[in-house]
Amino acid sequence: MHEPVLLLWVDVSGHWCKDVLSFARVIDVELMEVPPGYTYVCQPADVDWNRPLKERLRKQWQVEHELSHIGKR
What we know:
Elements: E1 5-9, H1 18-26, E2 29-33, H2 39-42, H3 44-71
Parallel strand pairs: 1-2
Protein name: DDE-1 domain-containing protein
Organism: Phytophthora aleatoria
């Protein structure tokens, strides 16, 4: 026998489609939704790594986009 698997997911519609739910049952994976507002508890990598990275990339894109837009005037 194998150890049970629990997969925590945020509420994204693609995660909860019929095919995904069916496949999870086939491979014996229990799916659980991360409650709204609890990402910091259940998904620390999203909070500590991904959020700062995405913020820096977004700011960099905005600066580059503004500079290229200014150059086209």
